[in-house]
Amino acid sequence: NGSGKLAGKRVVITAGPTREPIDPVRYISNHSSGKMGYALAVAARDAGARVILLSGPVNLPPPTGVEVRDVLTAEDLLQASSQAVDEGCDLFIATAAVADYRPRSLAGDKIKKSTETMELPLVRNPDTLATIAGRPDAPFTVGFAAETTDVADYAKDKLQRKKLRMIVANDVSVPGLGFNSDSNAVTVFWPEGQETLGPDTKTVIATRLVALIGDHLRQEEHE
Ligand code: PMT
């Protein structure tokens, strides 16, 4: 689509959960299905972009016309994102639900059941979104914010702190929306405004988000 809102743009999208290994058979993860990120990849492709989709472990078929690169851990995601941005990127969209912490060490053998309680030391993972947005050659960067309380306040805080152009706030406390469902409702914030989209299917939300992001991207190029 040479006349689409993202015609000729190079877009990198992160999607799905990360998986942080504890031992050879166990891991820490979350309920992200990848549906929101995959829908965005398809919408960006249909808007004329060349899309690289950095995907955590999900059960979705790779969309045609999109380059999918598989990642597992938060550290993998940072590495793959940095590489994809090095290759050239106009727009970076972070939809992935990244584990904030990982086990401090990976047990070589399966951990045996023993005491009544056990503690698992965790360490902070790198923040891909903040790292990409903080680069001197940062692309137009869009984050997501999944919250269960004070959604708008936390989203606006992340917009500023992580130096984002736009943030998509997702209230994941509403049953049937957000994680792992086919529908979503979001409010998009940018420094001077906001717009609410949905509730609607993730396909519809993705198409409207791509149109909105495309308008802002173009506006910035003409400033
Ligand atoms: O995958 P689905 O089932 O379709 O569900 C979609 C979704 C609910 C996962 C998605 O819409 C969503 O809200 N994704 C962000 C989830 C999240 O973990 O948000 P957060 O508030 O923890 O992170 C904020 C932003 O920083 C996100 O853009 C996230 O990708 C990014 N991040 C966070 C931590 C980290 N270490 N690296 C990051 O890049």
UniProtKB/TrEMBL annotation:
CTP binds at D100, K110, F144, K158, K162. Its cofactor is Mg(2+); FMN. GO terms for biological process: coenzyme A biosynthetic process; pantothenate catabolic process. Catalyzes two sequential steps in the biosynthesis of coenzyme A. In the first step cysteine is conjugated to 4'-phosphopantothenate to form 4-phosphopantothenoylcysteine. In the second step the latter compound is decarboxylated to form 4'-phosphopantotheine. This is Coenzyme A biosynthesis bifunctional protein CoaBC. It catalyses: (R)-4'-phosphopantothenate + L-cysteine + CTP = N-[(R)-4-phosphopantothenoyl]-L-cysteine + CMP + diphosphate + H(+); N-[(R)-4-phosphopantothenoyl]-L-cysteine + H(+) = (R)-4'-phosphopantetheine + CO2. Pathway: Cofactor biosynthesis; coenzyme A biosynthesis; CoA from (R)-pantothenate: step 3/5; Cofactor biosynthesis; coenzyme A biosynthesis; CoA from (R)-pantothenate: step 2/5. Keywords: Decarboxylase, Flavoprotein, FMN, Ligase, Lyase, Magnesium, Metal-binding, Multifunctional enzyme. Its EC number is 4.1.1.36, 6.3.2.5. It comes from the Bacteria. The chain holds residues 180 to 402 of 402 of the full protein. Residues 6-213 form the DNA/pantothenate metabolism flavoprotein C-terminal domain. The keyword Magnesium applies. Residues 11-223 are annotated as: Phosphopantothenate--cysteine ligase. It comes from Marinobacter adhaerens. GO terms for cellular component: phosphopantothenoylcysteine decarboxylase complex. Binds 1 FMN per subunit. GO terms for molecular function: FMN binding; metal ion binding; phosphopantothenate--cysteine ligase activity; phosphopantothenoylcysteine decarboxylase activity. In the N-terminal section; belongs to the HFCD (homo-oligomeric flavin containing Cys decarboxylase) superfamily. In the C-terminal section; belongs to the PPC synthetase family.
